[in-house]
Amino acid sequence: MNRRTFLAGAATVTAVGVAGCSALGGGNNEATDYDVGMGSAFFRPAEIEVSVGETVVWANTGNRRHTVTAYENQIPDDADYFSSGGFDSEADAVDGWQDGFGGYIESGTTYEHTFEIPGDYHYYCIPHEPEGMVGKVVVTE
Ligand SMILES: [Cu+2]
Questions:
Q1: Helices (H), strands (E): how many in the chain?
Q2: Exposed (0-12), middle (13-18) or buried (19+): which is 53, by Cβ within 10 Å?
Q3: Distance 138 CA to ligand 1 centre (A)
Q4: How far is the CA of 4 from the centre of ligand 1 (A)?
Q5: What confidence score (pLDDT) does residue 61 get?
Q6: For residue 49, how far is its CA from the centre of ligand 1 (angstroms)?
Q7: Are the C-beta atoms of residues 110 and 34 closer than 8 Å to each other?
Q8: What CATH number did the domain enclosing 68 receive?
Q9: Which of 36, 46, 64, 76 lies at 20 to 30 Å from 110 by C-alpha?
Q10: Cα dihedral 19, 60, 135, 66 sign
Q11: Is 141's pLDDT higher than 60?
């Protein structure tokens, strides 16, 4: 199927959905179970498809500071806004970033979001959007 299934099957730790905190441990500082990696200026895979109710885990697999920031006008109308740092709007996320790198995902750590509404979700990394660091989550029924 998709990457999620592959990773879940290949990993020796617990299920993807609960990997965010418990399975990764506090001291290791190395994300081992995730759906989308973040490199120098890319999300990999750039597009991922999940089912309603599933959680996507992003991991900063590189050395730079990255964000996961939804395009507020490019997610389903009924969907909650999402961004690393937990900002309630894209404007707040951008302000937060500009005011001391708020919302960044440290190297080796993860951010996750559960998608409850089907549709297409476009998102980007605030500092690296000019380098083309954008991604998409497709949520199906
Ligand atoms: Cu980035």
A1: 2, 8
A2: exposed
A3: 20
A4: 22
A5: 96
A6: 21
A7: yes
A8: 2.60.40.420
A9: 76
A10: positive
A11: yes
Q: How far is the CA of 39 from the centre of ligand 1 (A)?
A: 7
Give dist(CA 45, CA 14) in Å, integer: 21
Query: Is the predicted pLDDT of residue 17 greater than 90, yes or no?
Result: no
Compute the distance from residue 37 Cα to the ligand 1 centre, in Å.
Answer: 11
Task: State the residue for tokens 């500092």.
Answer: 127
Q: How many domains does the chain have?
A: 1
- pTM, full prediction: 0.79
Domain that holds residue 42: 3-140
C-alpha torsion 15→45→66→107, nearest 10: 50
Distance 99 CA to ligand 1 centre (A): 16
Give residue 40 CA to ligand 1 midpoint distance, Å: 7
Q: What is the pLDDT of residue 31?
A: 66
Mean pLDDT in the chain? 85
pLDDT in tens, 27-71: 445 667 999 999 999 999 999 999 999 999 999 999 999 999 999
pLDDT of the residue at 32: 75
